[in-house]
Amino acid sequence: MDFLWNYILPFLLVLSVLVFVHEWGHFWVARRCGVRVETFSIGFGPELIGRTDRHGTRWKFAAIPLGGYVRFYGDGDAASVTRQEGEPDTPVDPADQAKMFQNKPLAQRAAVVAAGPAANFIFAAIALAGLFMAYGHPVPAPVVGSVDPESAAEFHGILPGDRILAVDDREIWRFTEIAFAITEGQGRPITLTVDRDGETISLEATPRLETLEATDGTTVDRYLLGIRPEIGRYGPFEAVTVAVSETVAITFGTLSALGDIIVGERGTEELGGPIRIAQLSGDLAQTGLVMFIWFIAVLSINLGLINLLPIPVLDGGHLLLYAFEAVLRRPLSERVQEYGFRIGLALVLTLMVFATWNDLVQLRVFAFLRDLVS
Question: What are the DSSP E strand ranges found in the chain?
């Protein structure tokens, strides 16, 4: 029962919120483009509960809560594949042709598709702005808030307000990355690339070995510069500005990490699937509301990015097809699109299997099963 409350329910809450946000983006823009929306579903499979609104849209929760979809008038399935003539589905009323998604101008179709990922980015920025106003920044940017007196940082000329852009030419996005770099260096001099009042300068600093007292009374030796992050709550305008900047930073940080994985500079074990998300959802929900909201925002950004990948079946794949349509002045043939969607589906399923395999390896599930039979 504890596992249900501590992990399954937080996971379902996080996933349902993010799926709703994503599908709401599609829904909201579609309605404003005059597209009739038949179904708004959280989850797949048989309907558990639902209601039909005055516009004829069926809002429902389905039995398999691992995603969701918006189905438009004239769609053959949840992926917005057009119904074919002669199929035993509800026939399209000729008077309602203008309300079909497939009959809308290219720009409107692209806007409807792009609105899902865009909603995830906007939601993340709003969530972060609220978090910054209410609690401050839980994961500070690499901006120096204060410098300890008689510290290595003071000796080497580091000043409050300095934004550290890179350590030893390695770009950083979080204040904690500075500590990691110092620990990695074990006291050797490091080169800091610093933005000071709009001017980029380079500083060399040598961390000092200092003895710190832990909460349990023991002591530990660590190399330190003697700088502290910029913290504190933000006003409304500043919170929005920092939240947008943070959303952009997380986006490019994620893309950079993905690029490193593709070229082999980082291990593929960092890729996580639904099991890892469930574990993190539970762990962070138990640490408190602040980190839980932060996690939801970061996950929303990742969901937006994943859906923008140029893979058929995903939103990015649809946008890629629309780009070809714009260049060729006609849609690609149905046969080409069909093969594209098949390949895209295979890629997505392969990625999901690989990510789930990583999750099981990280949780030592296979090792546990091996020990049971050995």
Answer: 37-52, 58-72, 144-147, 163-167, 170-171, 190-196, 199-205, 208-213, 219-224, 227-229
- Report how far residue 173's alpha carbon sits from residue 178's, in angstroms, rounded to the nearest whole number: 9
Interatomic CA distance for residues 116 and 93, integer angstroms: 28
Cα gap 228→142, rounded to integer Å = 9
Domain ranges of the chain: 34-95, 144-229
The one-character DSSP state at 268 is G
Task: Kindly tell me the sign of the dihedral angle through the C-alpha atoms of 199, 200, 205, 207.
Answer: positive
HEC letters along 93-111:
CHHHHHHCHHHCCHHHHHH
Whole-angstrom Cα distance, residue 41 to residue 78? 10
Q: Which of 60, 64, 285, 242 is nearest to 137 (CA)?
A: 242
| pLDDT at residue 39, rounded to an integer | 93
Q: What is the per-residue pLDDT for 85?
A: 43
**DSSP helix, strand, coil percent of the chain (3-state; round to 5):** 55, 20, 25
Q: How many CA atoms within 13 Å lie on the side-chain side of 194?
A: 21
CB atoms within 10 A of CB 238: 13
128 within 8 A of 246, measured Cβ to Cβ: yes
Segments of the chain with pLDDT less than 70:
1-6, 76-95, 214-217, 264-276, 279, 354-374
* Crossing angle of helices 289-307 and 274-287, rounded to 10°: 150
Closest CA to 289 of 113, 119, 117, 138: 138
Confidence (pLDDT) at 10 = 83
pLDDT at 310: 87
The rounded Cα 356 to chain-centroid distance in angstroms is 17
Q: Name the CATH superfamily housing domain 144-229.
A: PDZ domain (2.30.42.10)
Report the pLDDT value the prediction gives residue 126, as an integer from 0 to 100: 96
Q: How far apart are CA 108 and CA 88, in angstroms?
A: 28
Give the active site residues.
23
